[in-house]
Amino acid sequence: MRLNRGMRLPVWARVAPLVLAAAVMVAGCGRSGYQYVENTDDTVFIKIPDDWSVVSEGTVNFVLTPDDDIQPIPGEFVLPWRAEFDAAPGGLQSSSEYVRGSVEIQPVDRRIQEKLPLTFFFPEVSGEQEGVEQVLHHLVTIGDVSGHRFIWTEATADGQVLMGDRLVLTDSINSVVYSVDVQCSVGCYQANAASIEEIMSTFTVEG
Predict the structure, then answer these.
(1) Per-residue pLDDT tens digits for 59-71
(2) In this structure, is residue 195 part of a structural domain?
(3) Boundaries of domain holding 76
(4) What's the total number of domains in the chain?
(5) What is the CA radius of gyration of the chain?
């Protein structure tokens, strides 16, 4: 991701995953073949297939801010949180032939809330990257949050063609950003299209 000119990149360094009452994964859906990945503080959850793995989950030390001194609106700051999942068997994690993705909550500094377009979160489809072709763009509303979903293909330097699918939502004042992101090769995406659509269509924000 890139910030607009004059803004700094957020810090993405990861802290060790934490087991918190506010961020837990619970098995669910009975015999449906799916499990829940959930952050109970913000009532954010998605469903992923039972045989996929959550490879990391917990608080992270990043925020969207123009400097190192975040200034949230009192009472509206939320704890940054991210969970990553992978469809690959343990020894093959991060292979482009298996779906990998994440669900994320990011607080936004009050000084940039009015000038943070959601297109900031889709640099791949901004027209500035070679080898990228937009496949789909939807406007999405889930409860009190709304935003965009993009699907695109991207040719890598080593000749692979990847397909990305990202849903980014925010509240009415851009104080919190919620996102779901998945990616794998085009063939992998097509083979897992039903599971990916289930992930995107069941993403819920009730905070």
Answers:
(1) 877 677 877 777 7
(2) yes
(3) 24-205
(4) 1
(5) 17
